[in-house]
Amino acid sequence: METAPIYDDYFLLRFKEGDEHAFEKVFKADYNRIAGFCQQFIGDKDKARSLAQEAFVKLWLNRKKVDSVNGIRSFLYTSAKTDCLNYLRHKKVINNYEDHQLQLKEGQINGEILESFDFNQLEFTELETLINQSISELPEKCRQVFMMSRMEGKKNSEIASELDISVKSVEANVTRALKTLRIKLSEYLPLILVELIIRNL
Domains of the chain (ranges plus CATH)? Predict the structure, then answer.
């Protein structure tokens, strides 16, 4: 079993105070681990990465509530586990699936640490609101192009044809929208998370 990175009390203090370098160290050490953990639950690699991303966003938003160095990884696993279970329950309701049997490898997680954290403290709605608000504040054409590109999954050539504009204009509007979102999110999240979110939009 892999061991957690060794963090000291000074590192924890920096982390809780919002030091992006401290957060980046945690992200690089544990992102793939959390994504792999999620994939064991849900069997979907892309969704697992999305849930892992959300776990790190929640960690950043709730960093002041982490009271020990062990609590950093505990928070990540707790958040990931909760969201995986919620995802499977939702999937079951929507698709009328049979109950999923969720099994974890023995010794993979310290259950006592996980149980010590209150699931209700994990909030993600603030970020979703910020992203939606940032998109809504884009210039009309820019917002329209961005929504068609990222939300509807249309190709640049399709968007250009539908809106009767050039492909270069489509590309310019998407670039402008992403730049605006980077600026807005950078006021709220560490750069490493901003770039991850932008790539997944």
Answer: 9-120 (1.10.1740.10), 125-200 (1.10.10.10)
